[in-house]
């Protein structure tokens, strides 16, 4: 028994390592950029650089997936630290709904640890309806630290490559129609985006580094009680309609020069869903206020 027990323990550990090997490998690649694995980010970097790099795009479709998939631009030149929006187009050439999954990497592989994606279709299993064609946004930036890495001193071009495969996990798919211009806003997705990209500075119930955003839709800009706004925003004369919020999230400095808001949301579908979530939060707050008022009226 003294011999068998350690053997069983060792076998259990070995089986566990085998079962979790793919997840461990993906975690290792994500943490180190190994094999040109890119990083996932949720906001702009804090600094930008005068140095530039060209990012080229490569797209492929695996055998057995009847899709057409290509970038809408072959390359872009970006400043290090600059958030950039580009688009890819996917089209289902078949008569059936199909779920695809995009594998990706960058070359040279030494650039992977510095290449950050904020928005990408590669984050999910993606479904295309029969003969549907969709324009898909990708938002990325290259960390300014890229220029300080000795392995990248002579690198002036990074190639971002995707290959779409038929998904082996179609039950977890999202519909690519969410990227269509006439797609309905999704406040559930908006809540997820708000949690990922906004809660470092904002909350819906209290002021933080940024003002409280519960009830922001319809509110006059610069008017949240207890928050110290920039002079630019206080004097902007704006009301936060959904259109103005969309313009603000797209480029705060363009809408209100001198405002302190440092973050932009470049892709329109994400802005639409974040605003839908904030609108829903405001409606729920209004309903609670109304209920409390009704209760008070009933007591007196």
From TrEMBL:
Q: Which domain of life is it from?
A: Bacteria
**Which cellular components does GO assign to this protein?**
plasma membrane
Q: What is this protein called?
A: Cytochrome c oxidase assembly protein CtaG
State its role. Exerts its effect at some terminal stage of cytochrome c oxidase synthesis, probably by being involved in the insertion of the copper B into subunit I.
User: Boundaries of each Cytochrome c domain copy?
Assistant: 185-282
Pull the Periplasmic topological domain ranges from the record: 22-300
Q: Which regions face the Cytoplasmic side of the membrane?
A: 1-2
Give this protein's Gene Ontology molecular function annotations: copper ion binding; electron transfer activity; heme binding
Keyword Chaperone assigned: no
* Entry's family note: Belongs to the COX11/CtaG family.
Chief subcellular location equals: membrane
Localization = Cell inner membrane
Extract the Pfam families matched here: CtaG_Cox11, Cytochrom_C
Gene3D superfamilies this protein is in? Ctag/Cox11, Cytochrome c-like domain
* GO biological process terms, semicolon-separated: respiratory chain complex IV assembly
Q: Tell me which stretches of the chain form a coiled coil.
A: none
Which of UniProt's keywords are assigned here? Cell inner membrane, Cell membrane, Copper, Electron transport, Heme, Iron, Membrane, Metal-binding, Signal-anchor, Transmembrane, Transmembrane helix, Transport
- What topology does it adopt in the membrane? Single-pass type II membrane protein
What is the organism of origin for this protein? Bradyrhizobium macuxiense
Kindly give the InterPro entries that the UniProt entry links to this protein. CtaG/Cox11_dom_sf, Cyt_c-like_dom, Cyt_c-like_dom_sf, Cyt_c_1A/1B, Cyt_c_oxidase_assmbl_CtaG
């Amino acid at each position: 028994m003294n011999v068998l027990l350690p053997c069983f323990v060792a076998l259990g550990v070995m089986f566990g390592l085998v079962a979790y090997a793919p997840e461990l490998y993906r975690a290792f690649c994500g943490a180190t950029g190994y094999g040109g694995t890119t990083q996932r980010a949720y906001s702009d970097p804090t600094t930008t650089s005068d140095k530039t790099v060209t990012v080229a795009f490569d797209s492929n479709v695996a055998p057995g997936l009847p899709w057409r998939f290509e970038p809408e631009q072959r390359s872009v030149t970006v400043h290090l630290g600059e958030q950039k929006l580009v688009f890819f187009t996917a089209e289902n050439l078949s008569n059936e709904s199909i779920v695809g999954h995009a594998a990706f990497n960058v070359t040279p592989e030494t650039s992977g640890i510095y290449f950050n994606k904020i928005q990408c279709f590669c984050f999910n299993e993606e479904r295309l309806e029969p003969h549907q064609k969709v324009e898909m946004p990708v938002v990325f930036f290259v960390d300014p630290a890229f220029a300080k890495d000795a392995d990248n001193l002579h690198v002036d071009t990074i190639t971002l490559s995707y290959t779409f495969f038929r998904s082996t996990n179609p039950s977890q798919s999202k519909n690519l129609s969410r990227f269509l211009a006439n797609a309905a806003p999704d406040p559930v997705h908006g809540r997820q985006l708000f949690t990922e990209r906004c809660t470092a500075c904002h909350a819906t119930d209290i002021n933080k580094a940024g003002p409280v955003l519960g009830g922001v839709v319809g509110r006059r800009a610069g008017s949240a009680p207890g928050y110290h706004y920039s002079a630019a925003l206080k004097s902007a004369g704006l009301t936060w309609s959904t259109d103005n919020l969309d313009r603000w999230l797209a480029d705060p400095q363009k809408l209100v020069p001198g405002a302190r808001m440092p973050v932009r949301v470049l892709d329109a579908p994400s802005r639409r869903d974040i605003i839908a979530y904030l609108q829903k939060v405001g409606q729920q707050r209004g309903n609670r206020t109304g209920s409390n008022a009704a209760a008070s009226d009933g007591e007196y």
